Amino acid sequence: MKFPLMAQSGLFLKMLDNGKERKLGNGGLFNVVWSTLYWWFRPLVKWVLRRTTRLCELQRICYGEWKGAQRTNGVEFSLNHSRSVDIQKCMKYMENKCIERTLKPDLIYYAVFAIVRIKKINTKVHKKFSDILCECLTQIWGYRQLLAEIEAIRQEAYNIENAGHEAMLMRLWVALMPGMPLEARITKQWQMIGFQGDDPRTDFRGMGLLGLENLLFFAEEYNSAARHVLTRSQHPRYGYSFAIVGINITHMAYNLLRSGDAKNHFYNACKRFPEPRVFHQFYSYLFFSFDDLWRQEKPRDMMEFSRVRDKFEAQVKQKLKNPTTFFKCEFVLENI
Fold it and tell me: pLDDT for 27-68, tens place per residue?
């Protein structure tokens, strides 16, 4: 249940924030004035509400916002814009741990304890606050550590001398083309699943090992859906290069994660620390959905790929703006 003052304050601050984002792009004196007013009103509103509700901003968000992305985004915004030096230090420490990929669940509990102490919150009176805040921080810092882990995979180049890399590539072939053995390691057969040439490793240069891991996950975890998309990609009129398009979708998914556009999805999808598997599921949803749009658009040829891809990305970003968004991998296989 939302408390009136909390809901009104949240709406007011969101209006200020949205207006700030719209106006700052236009340049000029008005932008400076608006920005000044925004940062002047924010602490004033917080001070008034703290006195009237006897709750700090984090408490008002945790008690007044819906569970999931809406609540977590509010907590993240509050922490990022906190003027407390101690909270800023805590945020910096946690950020460094995420970059190093050494953040553990125990550190989340210490962060919650520190924030409760800094904000002087009586946990005997507000018994649920620590648990709610812990869940939000787990999502916030889990997302950032996931980004660091995905970046590390992307930066790892495909190495033909790495037995693990080669094994993954062979598994991809088996998953997509069961019952049809490869004639050789380097062969034109790879073009049957949408690689450009005789050796797939050259196509992984842009996205590194991440492109292969995404394709392999889709092919193995959602085998029926992946083979369905592969078959559709071989259509004589509306066909496209399955693997190459898949690597392009990897690029899109990675950019959505890095830019923060995908936060609503991941905040709604994960209560605990997300693993790369969650990103692979996000990718699988995007690839399957792109194939559906491609067929709907009825492109003349592959020269229209950029147009369809841009349209698809715009649609995905629009959906991701909704704080209730959660992309589920529930694939419906229609006629080819």
Answer: 567 677 766 766 667 676 676 766 677 788 999 999 999 999
Which amino acid would we find at residue 50? R
* Two tokens, residue 49: 């509400």
pLDDT digits (tens, 9 = 90+) for 280-296: 999 999 999 999 999 99
Q: Hey, what amino acid is at 60?
A: R
Tokens 């999931």 locate to: 68
Task: Classify residue 299 by burial, with Cβ atoms within 10 Å: 0-12, 13-18, 19+.
Answer: middle
d(CA 51, CA 310): 48
